[in-house]
Amino acid sequence: MNDDDLNHLRRCIALAGDAAAAGDGAFGSVLVSGSGDVLAEDRNRETSTGDPTAHPEFALARWAAMNLSPEECAAATVYTSGEHCPMCSAAHGWAGIGRIVYVQSAAQLQWWRYGDNPPAGPVAALPIQQVAPLVRVEGPVPELLDEIRALHPRRVAE
Ligand SMILES: [Zn+2]
């Protein structure tokens, strides 16, 4: 984890803040080339589009698949505020993107939101490595957790 990694993650948190301000889930992601250039970025748009698959990690995986060569995908990194869900992990794996760096794990988010009483969700909360075993994964990042946690208020399980 170097300063460039942390700066990309801070941009993800800013995008997550933009999403939350727009009424969407507080998630943001940045696609960075092997040489360190920011290629694309996105934020969650589930509520504003009415599409529950409008996750930024999914959008960036598709962007990479359509705009980069397989070699460029393999050298690229997706930085993201929260660990990929299984849908986004699969898209990332199919696109052949080399690396993921996330601030907060899916398990941490579930704990922040629901404590020890999480509701049963429509999609299993599988870790990235279980869905896309070839991806290099780094996270969580302790020094940024408070910033992202502030964007995820506690919820009441139904
Ligand atoms: Zn997702």
Description:
This protein has a five-stranded mixed β-sheet, sandwiched between helices. Helix 3 packs parallel to helix 5 (86-95). The chain is an alpha/beta fold. It has helices at 3-21, 46-49, 56-67, 70-75, 86-95, 106-114, 128-131, 145-149; strands at 28-32, 38-43, 77-82, 99-104, 136-138. The site of zinc ion has 7 residues, from helix 3 and helix 5.
Provide the gyration radius in Å: 15 Å
Helix content: 40-55%
| Poorly predicted sequence stretches spanning 5 or more consecutive residues | none
Bound molecules: zinc ion
Question: In total, how many beta strands?
Answer: 5
The CA-CA distance between the termini, in Å, is: 38 Å
**Mean pLDDT, nearest integer?**
95
Number of helices: 8
Shape: globular
What is the ordering of alpha helices and beta strands? HEEHHHEHEHHEH
The main sheet comes to:
5 strands, mixed
Structural class: alpha/beta
Strand order of the largest sheet: 2-1-3-4-5
- Beta-strand level of the residues, as a percent range? 15-25%
Secondary structure elements and pairings:
Blueprint: H1 3-21, E1 28-32, E2 38-43, H2 46-49, H3 56-67, H4 70-75, E3 77-82, H5 86-95, E4 99-104, H6 106-114, H7 128-131, E5 136-138, H8 145-149
Parallel strand pairs: 3-4, 4-5
Antiparallel strand pairs: 1-2, 1-3
Zinc ion (ZN) binds at residues 55, 57-58, 84-85, 87-88.
